[in-house]
């Protein structure tokens, strides 16, 4: 019953954001796309609603937060899995293969540049800044790979304290959210034709999976570009797989200073369950499309279209509203400016490398023909 209250609040917030987005679109006399997409409105509405409860935080946490967190986590995973019905295995493979060089460039930049930025900032701000080596490693993982998931996977491997984890999570929350809101518009300027290049850029430059989904939905709704949304999702899920290499690499950097810290550390799953479900749904779609008796059946077409649309238009937007409901100002309280300077520089470095590498691949024709069938 406790979770039901939070889920209901997320659904209501999503419905309000969707209705507001549609109303703004009608007032602006635009056919189809709204200048105020539903995804950022849902997050903003959730965050504002959470702020309204700031004087009764304990009540909100008790009644609504369990359901909101379940919706933000499991709802997002369910939505991503169902989104696989919109794609075929060939589309996933083509996008992931084409984006691989850019993924390698951006992840490598984040993993190597962030610790260097941490060292420079530590000299500038001094020991009191709290910029420990572990904070630098956590920021590197969160910025370059997959946000909070990477931070949670690395923390036990290097023996990070709750304070150090909190600093890294606060950075991911702050700059990932800023990127989610700003990068869709930057992507349109960088890649006016939209499509796969714009989606790959979004999948590389925004921190967390939920934030990438939000950025992709914003681009899709603002510019009526479904392909960019699909490409952003595939790119981010492919980028998440580098966690299997990033965690051992960053943990190894601490072995000499903290011998054996990662010996019995908890490791994240090599391939997340929702990614397997996403690929399985795409495989089911591909199998159905390849079977002549099924491919031309109206019921099959209705099924995969309804499944994908339900994920895109209901489950994922509701998850975005839940993300907003889970945003608490207390996550940023007591955190000094120095970690945010490092986080800003690291996020900018990853964003610049993402833009340059995707531009180069696009110019070389790497994305040509993807999703054309």
Automatic annotation (TrEMBL):
Annotated signal sequence is 1-19
User: Which residues are listed as membrane-spanning?
Assistant: 32-49, 135-159, 165-183, 237-257, 269-288, 309-331, 337-358
- Stated name of the protein: Uncharacterized protein
The places in or outside the cell where this protein is found are: Cell membrane
Q: Which PANTHER family match?
A: INNER MEMBRANE PROTEIN YEIH-RELATED (PTHR30106), UPF0324 INNER MEMBRANE PROTEIN YEIH (PTHR30106:SF2)
Domain of life the protein comes from? Eukaryota
Which keywords, in A-to-Z order, does the entry hold?
Answer: Cell membrane, Membrane, Signal, Transmembrane, Transmembrane helix
Give the protein family. Answer: Belongs to the UPF0324 family.
InterPro entries, alphabetized = UPF0324_pro
Primary location recorded for the protein, binned into one broad class = membrane
Q: How does it sit in the membrane?
A: Multi-pass membrane protein
Q: Which GO terms describe its cellular component?
A: plasma membrane
């Amino acid at each position: 019953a406790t979770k039901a209250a939070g889920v209901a609040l997320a659904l209501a917030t999503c419905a309000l954001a969707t209705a507001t987005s549609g109303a703004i679109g009608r007032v602006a006399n635009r056919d189809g796309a709204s200048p105020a997409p539903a995804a950022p409105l849902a997050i903003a509405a959730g965050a504002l609603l959470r702020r309204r409860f700031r004087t009764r935080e304990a009540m909100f946490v008790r009644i609504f937060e369990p359901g909101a967190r379940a919706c933000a986590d499991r709802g997002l995973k369910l939505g991503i899995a169902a989104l696989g019905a919109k794609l075929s295995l060939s589309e996933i493979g083509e996008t992931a293969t084409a984006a691989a060089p850019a993924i390698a460039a951006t992840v490598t930049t984040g993993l190597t540049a962030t610790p260097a930025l941490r060292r420079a900032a530590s000299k500038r701000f001094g020991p009191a800044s709290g910029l420990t080596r572990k904070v630098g490693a956590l920021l590197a993982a969160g910025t370059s790979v997959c946000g909070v998931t990477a931070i949670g996977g690395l923390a036990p491997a290097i023996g990070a304290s709750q304070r150090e984890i909190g600093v890294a999570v606060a950075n991911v929350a702050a700059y990932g959210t800023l990127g989610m809101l700003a990068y869709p518009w930057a992507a349109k300027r960088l890649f006016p034709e939209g499509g796969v290049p714009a989606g790959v850029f979004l999948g590389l430059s925004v921190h967390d999976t939920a934030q990438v989904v939000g950025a992709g939905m914003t681009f899709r709704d603002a510019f009526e570009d479904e392909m960019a949304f699909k490409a952003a999702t595939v790119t981010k899920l492919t980028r998440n797989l580098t966690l299997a290499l990033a965690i051992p690499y960053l943990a190894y950097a601490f072995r000499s200073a903290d011998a054996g810290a990662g010996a019995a550390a908890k490791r994240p799953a090599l391939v997340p369950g929702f990614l397997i479900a996403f690929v399985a749904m795409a495989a089911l779609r591909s199998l159905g499309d390849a079977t002549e008796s099924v491919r031309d059946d109206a019921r099959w077409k209705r099924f995969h279209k309804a499944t994908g649309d339900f994920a895109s238009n209901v489950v994922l937007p509701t998850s975005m509203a839940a993300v907003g409901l889970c945003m608490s100002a207390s996550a940023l309280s007591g955190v000094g400016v120095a970690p945010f300077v490092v986080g800003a520089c690291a996020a900018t470095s990853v964003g610049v490398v993402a833009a340059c590498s995707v531009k180069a691949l696009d110019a070389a024709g790497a994305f040509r023909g993807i999703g054309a069938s």
